[in-house]
Design a protein that fits this description.
There is one protein chain. By secondary structure, this protein is α+β, with helices and mostly antiparallel strands. Helices cover 23% and strands 43% of the residues. The longest helix has 14 residues.
């Protein structure tokens, strides 16, 4: 079954951006949305995660949980999704790359 996904990819190679536009629409710079199967979603994410290098990428897709979606991240980033009793929250990293204490 197909579902809608959103991928944001910042500072990634041009060839990756081209690959994403084969399956998804680039609705604003660096934001791709579309409806694809789980297999295509996972293959796209594998390509994104392999090519992100120093960039940042986030995938949001539907999931059977309280929030109705899940997040995947790749690359160097300042924000880290963490699980808090079944809810995904975002923790900010400090400049020293240590995880900020969410509580």
């Amino acid at each position: 079954m197909s579902s809608m996904i959103a991928i944001t990819a910042t500072a990634v190679p041009d060839h990756l951006r081209g690959a994403l536009t084969r399956w998804l629409l680039e609705v604003t710079p660096e934001l791709y949305v579309g409806t694809v199967s789980a297999k295509v979603r996972d293959e796209l994410w594998s390509a994104v995660a392999a090519c992100t290098n120093d960039g940042i990428a986030v995938l949001a897709h539907p999931a059977d949980n309280e929030q109705g979606f899940t997040l995947r991240t790749a690359g160097t980033r300042r924000r880290e999704p963490i699980d808090f009793d079944g809810l995904t929250l975002i923790a900010f990293r400090r400049d020293s790359q240590e995880m900020a204490n969410p509580l």
